[in-house]
Amino acid sequence: MVKNIIKISFRNLLRSGRRTILTASLITIGVMFVLVYSALSGSFKSYMVGQVTDSMLGHIQIHKKGYIASVDNLPLDKNINKKQLDKITEILDKNQFIESYTFRLKLGSMFSNYISSTNIRLNGIDPLKEAKTLPLFESRIDEIKASELKEGSIIVPELLAKGMGVKKGDSIVLVATNKKGSVNGLNFKVEGSIEPISGPGGRDGYIHINDVKKLLRFKEIEVSEVVIRLKDVKHLKTVMRMLKPLSNMKNQKDKPVFEVHTWEKLSPFYNIVKMLDIMDISIKIILISIVLISVLNVMVMNVFERIKEIGTIAAMGTTPSTITKLFLTEGLMLGTFGAIVGSFLSYIIILIINGIGISFSFGRQSDLTLNPVLHINEILIVGVIVIIISLIASISPAIKAANLNPVDALRQN
Amino acid sequence: MIINKNVTKTYQMGEIDLKVIKNLNLSIEYGEFIAIVGPSGSGKSTVLNLLGCLDKPSEGKILIDGTDITQLNRTQLADFRGENIGFIFQSFNLIPVLSVYENIEYPLIMIQNLEQDERDKRIMQLLKEVDMLDQKDKFPDQLSGGQRQRVAIARALVTKPKIVFADEPTANLDTETSNQIITLMRNIQKEFNTTFVFATHDEKIVTAVDRIITLVDGEIIDDKRV
Description:
The structure holds two protein chains of two kinds.
Chain A: H1 2-15, H2 17-57, E1 60-64, H3 82-94, E2 98-112, E3 117-125, H4 127-133, E4 141-142, E5 153-157, H5 158-164, E6 171-177, E7 183-194, E8 205-208, H6 209-215, E9 225-230, H7 236-242, H8 244-248, E10 258-262, H9 263-266, H10 269-305, H11 307-316, H12 320-356, E11 359-362, E12 365-369, H13 376-402, H14 406-411
Parallel strand pairs in A: 3-8, 5-7
Antiparallel strand pairs in A: 1-9, 1-10, 2-3, 2-6, 2-9, 4-7, 5-8, 6-7, 11-12
Helix pairs in contact in A: 1-12, 2-10, 2-12, 2-13, 10-12, 10-13, 12-13
Chain B: E1 2-13, E2 16-28, E3 33-37, H1 44-51, E4 59-64, E5 67-68, H2 74-84, E6 85-88, H3 100-111, H4 116-129, H5 145-157, E7 163-167, H6 175-192, E8 195-199, H7 203-208, E9 211-216, E10 219-225
Helix pairs in contact in B: 3-4, 3-5, 5-6
């Protein structure tokens, strides 16, 4: 019987061919639009998230409590001291999900080329650990490998280098005030420049962490932040749970010592990600509306045009449930057809986009190339939504058909 | 055997109750060839709908083989029709998207759920009977009126119903085709002992039947065997 229901429903759809094609095309275009958009926005998101986490923020950062609230001032009195750092490293070393971690000591400083001066945000880094924790960090730097940054050298932000007219090999002076208020200056050699990136810290300069220690006259190591890279970003929540002891740690005054944040909290780009996700949902809602209205419309027409036929099959003994199934199958077929053809065409469009290579600019970054990927999960989700909505849209017309009184239906012309 | 006891059918027309069938008492034996005649609006089609379990009476009982069909719900009525009753309509009412063979096959699959071999045997026998064997793969819109009615007859008979109701089956056919169709139904009635009940104005049918029931204003005024 199922085979026959499918056969009859299919032929009924072909019978009003133009209307069926129009409706199916509408669904197809909707599916295509959603899938191509999802692939493009997904590619944009993963590219940008990759950039943000792999070249600057890492996946998780640990700071002294209160540091993030005043991060724009790069406060030196909210650094993590050696004792606290030992506790952190003890916990991090035991965590199997952590690939690597690095320390940064951040400060605001004055940059002088002996002719003019400007302010600069500096990161004191451990070059080897920084390169390991942020794999894309090196790709932003010209003329030197990040891991080869030696004491006495500086990597200057590209825009500042251009503005101040400094190049590799030039000597410059960095002047900074330490937390006791004393001012100190040191000579540095420019070893390279670093290109900007959107987000916090995207226009920072880099020196060796030991140089910061000297510049600020610290007796022992202090750090502003601990940057953590996970083996797999999908373990972000798990690791955050595992780092709870750190965020729950209290000092003698019973106040929290550290704050632990994911990249999502630290990067303004996460808001764009959220916006893209909201747009993704909005587009899916539009698709649902398209499918609902077009299938409902076509099914109401189908029932209205076939009242006498429904009366005939009901008179012959077709039960109301079988009549319902006949019309539900028609709606289901419309949705399924739209979902399959739409997915197939989306796949072709994505192939074409990847073939052509669409590049875009974001913030100060240009020539970023999108590599959209059509995930099977996304196809399945959109397909299931379309099919379920087609079914829902067919329920009312199908029930109307099943509830028709055969006598009244047979009287229709 | 069909027995109608004090059957009344009333339609609500706005504020007015319109009694179209009044205290109908009727008994039909299997194998009869009956015409219900009467002027337009006399209630012929309503009687046919009531006897064919398409409609329920407002009052009274309809017993078919002892089953009181007024007590059945919509699905039970549909099942009952599928097993016991066949219909032939004035405008044939074939399913346009199905071929001749598939139209006849429809009630066997969708209603009686028979196996392929049994279906094929019954359909081929009926196609031969109604002389449509060579047209079996055509679709309704490729057939003449007479051919369509032959297919409709085959479809009505394929479920081996106890009784077939035909509402003006020759109204859309020319005289020669009408005669052929009446002869065909008569032969089938004799061969399979199928009961045929016609609601008709057609004199050709009236002269062919064994029993004529005359209705006027929803009441039987004459019931004679010829």
